[in-house]
Write a structure and sequence with these properties.
NAD(P)-bd_dom_sf (chains A, B); ODC_Mu_crystall (chains A, B); 7-stranded mixed sheet; 39% helix; ornithine cyclodeaminase, domain 1; 27% strand; disordered N terminus; Ornithine cyclodeaminase (chains A, B); globular; 2 domains; 364 residues; homodimer; ODC_N (chains A, B); alpha/beta; Rossmann fold
């Protein structure tokens, strides 16, 4: 091999990879776009255009530190990739984030890496979007009362995503059974936080921007410790807690209510009394995963459901994206989290960053 | 939640991640260190300190484009991570590298990402090091004649790694049955390329630097198209080709010879006549993987070996790292590539980069 030719060939091969940090994502992602991207990802799973590869899980310290690797291929976006997300409970005491990780996205035409995205920062968006896709499809489109159970890190994202798809929500009730003071604190600052964190990235010329601005300015936000009463008056309910026993009793839930159960993602987790699966039309993001680690696991263990009876939301979306709500039917979406959400949201951020030449670009 | 506290908490959480490009690796990695790191990784696998998680493979276009995801945990280095490597044959015509990918490394004490490393650039080092670990353990330490079969991208790395561990090699013979002119061209420029590419990163005060400088200046390099004769005169043989049928016949191989078969990493690949496994003491990097996709697959198919009889090199290294050569015994190491090699090499590069504040550091 001629040395000069060899060196020349090497210098020709420019591989540009983009890095998107937490603060890049704050300026690049807007909920209307992320919700659409996650809807497409679910739909692609339903049509076979989205493929999930086996998940890898490792626990470093029992109930204290673990990690998982999720990967997949979103053909409609010409993107495949891998996410590694770790959780170290002791980090909080060290002044470090508990969740850390990256999503790396590759181009299916060349195999070149498109970029690396902060996975922890992406998680709020893609998980908020999951609940919003389900509510847009299944909830009463005229719903006025939203109940959020759990005032943790997910709450802000879940509420903003729900407001984005439910234009008539005028009352948000926040319940946190473990730390009621967190619900009170969140209620006090909610509209300010939502406005500051999520409105700036929405196109000011889009109708949704004006509508959300108005909706936020008129929003009534209340903290409550009466979960029974809050459940009875809600038309849309989001649970986002690490609970391991049912908090919501099924006879509290009114006909026509839609629930998004976000918290359950491990064996032993539960947020809602499993008998709700007897009457609610239920949907999952991934059949096998929901049966093992989702809210659905409890209904399966109680023999109320069988794994092969579960319907993936992607199968429904593959048929129609039109709202399916009927007045007397309860619906439930069990979100356990799939790689295609992360790939869709990360790819969206990377494409927006390319247009705006945002983030760090590195010739790998 | 108090907004001020929340903002303060966010700004405290600095997560620094380092990116190492192909040219960073060229200035950071030296073969003596990479060989030691890969030896430790194999040893860790033998003692259970190194864990490999299931491999994920996807083919985009049959025989034209694929990718795999390999991951694992190297406890001795407090590092775990994931590598995604893609191969797109059509890239060469597009002026793009055929191999692309990244290795991402995380700290097992916090879950924080340590860095992202160009996986394609790492591959030459970690694969060269694999063969060198085996030769240091199994080959005649006084060997003077090295045969390399295959003059492709791996050849430079394999030769330099062998010279690093075999101080008496004075003759290198290069055979390429498919493209003999590549062997001729490589032979002409070999010592210059090795000196320019690999000597600058070795500590000039280390004994190995002076020895390699001298060894390279006296090296006789020959291209040959007579594989039978080249095999008969070699004491150490490295095969690094994409061959799918045996090139080396077992009766050409002399007693006391050590072989590293590097090429086979997919079903249907073969470089050496499988009857060699009847007489050679053979070792593999990973039992299951070698049995399925390594050189070993052919001996298993021919009923010369059974999977449960295979010995991992890590099991041998866990007992002793002393050279095991005996004059009349042929030995063979079947290298298929495991995530622990990539994690070891990437982690080494990241730690050296931290000391030298090299690469790009990004607050993720």
């Amino acid at each position: 091999m001629d040395t000069i030719f060899w060196l020349f060939a090497k210098t020709q091969e420019v591989v540009i990879m983009r890095i998107l940090t937490s603060s890049d994502l704050q300026t690049l992602l807007d909920f209307p776009s992320v919700i659409d991207a996650v809807e497409t990802a679910y739909q692609d799973k339903g049509t076979g255009q989205g493929v999930i590869w086996p998940m890898i899980y490792h626990e470093f310290i029992s109930d204290q530190a673990d990690m998982d690797i999720r990967s997949g291929y979103l053909k409609s976006q010409h993107a495949y990739g891998v996410k590694l997300l770790s959780w170290f409970a002791e980090n909080e005491a060290k002044g470090l984030p508990e969740l850390n990780g990256t999503v790396t996205i590759y181009d299916d035409q060349t195999g070149l890496p498109k970029g690396v995205v902060n996975a922890a920062a992406l998680t709020g968006y893609r998980t908020g979007a999951a609940g919003a896709v389900a509510s847009r499809l299944l909830a009463n489109p005229d719903a006025t009362n939203l109940l959020i159970v759990g005032a943790g890190a997910q709450a802000l994202y879940q509420i903003m995503a729900q407001l984005t798809v439910l234009p008539h929500i005028s009352t948000v009730t926040i319940v946190d059974l473990v730390a009621p003071q967190k619900a009170t604190q969140l209620a006090e600052t909610l509209t300010q936080q939502l406005s500051e964190q999520f409105l700036p990235t929405i196109d000011t010329h889009a109708a949704v921007y004006e509508r959300l601005t108005t909706q936020l300015s008129h929003l009534t936000v209340t903290a409550s410790d009466d979960l029974e009463n809050a459940t009875k008056t809600a038309q849309v309910i989001v649970t986002a807690t690490p609970s391991t026993k049912a908090m919501i009793q099924s006879d509290w839930v009114q006909p026509g209510t839609h629930l998004n159960t976000i918290g359950a993602d491990m064996t032993g987790k539960q947020e809602v009394d499993e008998t709700i699966f007897k009457t609610a039309n239920s949907y999952v993001d991934d059949r096998q995963q929901a049966a093992q680690v989702g809210e659905t696991q409890n209904a399966i263990r109680a023999n109320i459901l069988q794994e092969d009876q579960l319907t993936e939301i992607g199968d429904l979306l593959a048929t129609s994206t039109q709202n399916q709500w009927t007045p007397n039917q309860m619906t439930l979406f069990d979100s356990t989290g799939i790689a295609l959400q992360d790939i869709a949201a990360a790819n969206l951020a990377l494409e927006k960053a390319e247009t705006l030449t945002a983030g760090h670009s590195i010739d790998l």
